[in-house]
């Protein structure tokens, strides 16, 4: 699953438009699989990309939330999405009901 490349596109290419200033900046990723990066294989390259993105997101003040069965999956002993969430003040959870999404976003804004 190409979650990290999608996050990279949102941040670096402003795929969804630029973030406005003076507002909460949050990316919510709903996932049911391990990170697969650009080659659809969960490997060390994904861990490296995750660590690099954690720095970029943190620097830009963007909180990362990962939700769903794949949110806590590990690659080479690293839960990539948890690294992103921890670095940015976000969260991970294996749940992703509508109320869980709402709660995660509300908590990220507090």
Question: Can you offer a commentary on this structure?
Answer:
Helix content is 44%, strand content 14%. The chain has 110 residues and is an alpha/beta fold. It has a three-stranded parallel beta sheet with strand order 1-2-3. The longest helix is centred in the middle third of the chain and has 17 residues, at 44-60. It is globular.
Quick synopsis:
The chain is built from four helices and three strands; from the N terminus they run αβαβαβα. The chain has helices at 3-12, 44-60, 80-88, 98-109, and strands at residues 25-30, 62-67, 91-93. Helix 1 (3-12) packs parallel to helix 2 (44-60) and helix 2 (44-60) packs parallel to helix 3 (80-88).
Q: How many extended strands? A: 3
Q: Could you state the order of secondary-structure elements as H and E?
A: HEHEHEH
What is the CA-based Rg, rounded? 13 Å
Which structural class is indicated by helix and strand composition? alpha/beta
| Poorly predicted spans | none
Distance between the termini: 30 Å
Q: Main β-sheet, in a few words? A: 3 strands, parallel
What is the number of helices?
Answer: 4
- Overall mean pLDDT stands at 88
The dominant shape is: globular
Question: Which percent range describes the beta-strand content?
Answer: 5-15%
Annotation keywords:
alpha/beta; 4 helices; 14% strand; 3 strands; 110 residues; three-stranded parallel sheet
List the helices and strands and how they pair.
Elements: H1 3-12, E1 25-30, H2 44-60, E2 62-67, H3 80-88, E3 91-93, H4 98-109
Parallel strand pairs: 1-2, 2-3
Helix pairs in contact: 1-2, 2-3
């Amino acid at each position: 699953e190409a979650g990290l490349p999608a996050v990279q596109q949102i941040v670096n290419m402003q795929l969804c438009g630029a973030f406005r200033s003076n507002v909460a900046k949050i990316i919510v990723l709903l996932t049911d699989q391990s990170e697969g990066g650009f080659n659809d294989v969960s490997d060390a390259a994904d861990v490296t990309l995750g660590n690099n993105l954690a720095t970029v997101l943190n620097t830009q003040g963007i909180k990362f939330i990962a939700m769903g069965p794949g949110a806590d999956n590990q690659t080479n002993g690293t839960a990539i999405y948890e690294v992103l969430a921890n670095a940015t003040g976000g969260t991970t959870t294996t749940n992703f009901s509508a109320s869980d999404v709402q709660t995660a976003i509300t908590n990220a804004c507090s």
